[in-house]
């Protein structure tokens, strides 16, 4: 098997069906990765597959600066129904990184200001502009310096979730550091925007307090700075809400979307107010492929499935159940120092006996789960967190099967009787 990057698994995948993947020998796996939060509707949902088939017989490519396609309006209107009124204008592309690049270009055009503030632990993509905002792991940045100038990094209120630290005190400290940054490194007159994941993804599945997100919003409003929420991984029901910003009572100026929007086909976008979008110089940004007809057909049907099959509520209820069951395992295994999450975006953090990050333990448990037919991923700066991101179609009985495998893997890996 040829490969260009180290693989998390050696599965030679043949096909997928809902929460399961099958390799070419017929072995069945429970997939709790969803393609890193992409297949929210499960693998090959029949309605979405049919929508793609129907569209494939009509048109495969229709470049959007040449041809008008009413599916673009249908998709935009469907999204508008689940978004705040102020987020009413859309620009679509292919990937999350492209969408972040689009947001960078928009805020610089719209404000005439060069600088962007990001937050420690964030992941925003691996193209050069998006990578410049990414601080989740040094491996993403190593060998690519110097990166895009005009980027400043502010602390995130996370160090170790399992310490007895006062979270609200740390939140206040981080907000003060943000204000200090504006006074010492990037003045408001030069700062176009701030960008943050409302729940850190690659950085460790960390959800900050509501007061932190609201504090950022207040600082942005005070200094006429735009606020970007990167909801590439958290969107489309992943956190038990349509979008994670709903947990915090804060609306961004720009919303970045991708992953779950089209159930596996390449589609992404940014959403903002039309007055802001109109400040973009026509023709200054675009692309050949996005949004392509197949991806739009998949996205339109995906939104219908999320609504009609009540998958957002299922994400919330199944997520609460999974979180509670993992908390029980945390009480049994001291190596699990924190279990956290919203909806079906849950992190299980390990620590070594000497207090170091539990990288080795997490990887050993992950590999043991894989050998037993359960696919999980790690995240965090040291890969010390196992993340749980199953399709939103998951049922309680399927969670129980996964938990049984996980418990067995813990016993084997930690040499419990």
Automatic annotation (TrEMBL):
Provenance organism: Cytobacillus horneckiae
Q: Which reaction does it catalyse?
A: 4-aminobutanoate + 2-oxoglutarate = succinate semialdehyde + L-glutamate; (S)-3-amino-2-methylpropanoate + 2-oxoglutarate = 2-methyl-3-oxopropanoate + L-glutamate
Enzyme Commission number(s): 2.6.1.19, 2.6.1.22
What is this protein's name? (S)-3-amino-2-methylpropionate transaminase
- Pfam families of this UniProt entry? Aminotran_3 (PF00202)
User: Which pathway does this polypeptide act in?
Assistant: Amino-acid degradation; 4-aminobutanoate degradation
Which cofactor(s) does the record list?
pyridoxal 5'-phosphate
Q: Which CDD domains match?
A: OAT_like
Entry similarity comment: Belongs to the class-III pyridoxal-phosphate-dependent aminotransferase family.
**GO MF term set:** (S)-3-amino-2-methylpropionate transaminase activity; 4-aminobutyrate:2-oxoglutarate transaminase activity; identical protein binding; pyridoxal phosphate binding
Q: Which SUPFAM superfamilies match?
A: PLP-dependent transferases
Q: What InterPro entries does this protein's entry cite?
A: Aminotrans_3, Aminotrans_3_PPA_site, Class-III_PLP-dep_AT, PyrdxlP-dep_Trfase, PyrdxlP-dep_Trfase_major, PyrdxlP-dep_Trfase_small
Kindly state which keywords UniProt assigns to this record, in alphabetical order. Answer: Aminotransferase, Pyridoxal phosphate, Transferase
């Amino acid at each position: 098997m040829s490969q260009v990057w180290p693989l998390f698994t050696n599965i030679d995948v043949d096909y997928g069906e809902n929460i399961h993947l099958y390799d070419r020998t017929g072995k069945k796996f429970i997939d709790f990765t969803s393609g890193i939060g992409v297949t929210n509707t499960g693998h090959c949902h029949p309605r979405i597959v049919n929508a793609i088939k129907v569209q494939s017989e009509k048109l495969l490519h229709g470049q959007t600066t040449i041809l008008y396609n009413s599916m673009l309006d249908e998709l935009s209107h469907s999204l508008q129904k689940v978004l705040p009124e102020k987020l009413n204008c859309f620009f679509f592309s292919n990937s999350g990184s492209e969408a972040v690049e689009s947001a960078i270009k928009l805020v610089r055009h719209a404000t005439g200001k060069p600088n962007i503030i990001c937050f420690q632990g964030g992941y925003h993509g691996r193209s050069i502009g998006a990578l410049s905002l990414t601080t989740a792991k040094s491996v993403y940045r190593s060998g690519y310096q110097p990166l895009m100038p005009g980027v400043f990094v502010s602390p995130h209120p996370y160090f170790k979730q399992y310490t007895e630290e006062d979270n609200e005190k740390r939140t206040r400290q981080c907000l003060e550091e943000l204000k200090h940054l504006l006074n010492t490194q990037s003045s408001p007159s030069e700062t176009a925007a701030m960008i943050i994941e409302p729940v850190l993804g690659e950085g460790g599945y960390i959800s900050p307090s509501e007061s932190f997100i609201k504090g950022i919003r207040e600082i942005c409003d005070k200094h006429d700075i735009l606020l970007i929420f990167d909801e590439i991984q958290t969107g489309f029901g992943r956190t038990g809400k349509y979008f994670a910003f709903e947990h915090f009572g804060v609306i961004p100026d720009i919303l970045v979307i991708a992953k779950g929007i089209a159930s596996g086909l390449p589609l992404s976008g940014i959403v903002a107010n039309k007055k802001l979008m109109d400040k973009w110089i026509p023709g200054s940004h675009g692309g050949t492929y996005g949004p392509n007809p197949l991806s739009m057909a998949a996205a339109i049907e995906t939104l219908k499935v999320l609504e009609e099959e009540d998958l957002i509520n299922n994400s919330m209820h199944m997520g609460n159940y999974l979180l509670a069951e993992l908390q029980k395992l945390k009480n049994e295994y001291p190596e699990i120092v924190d279990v956290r999450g919203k909806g079906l975006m849950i992190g299980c953090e390990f620590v070594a006996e000497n207090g170091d990050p539990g990288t080795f333990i997490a990887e050993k448990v992950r590999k043991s789960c894989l050998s037993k037919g359960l696919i999980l991923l790690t995240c965090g700066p040291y890969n010390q967190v196992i993340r749980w991101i199953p399709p939103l179609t998951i049922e309680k009985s399927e969670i129980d099967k996964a938990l049984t495998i996980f418990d067995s893997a813990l016993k084997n890996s930690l040499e419990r009787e």
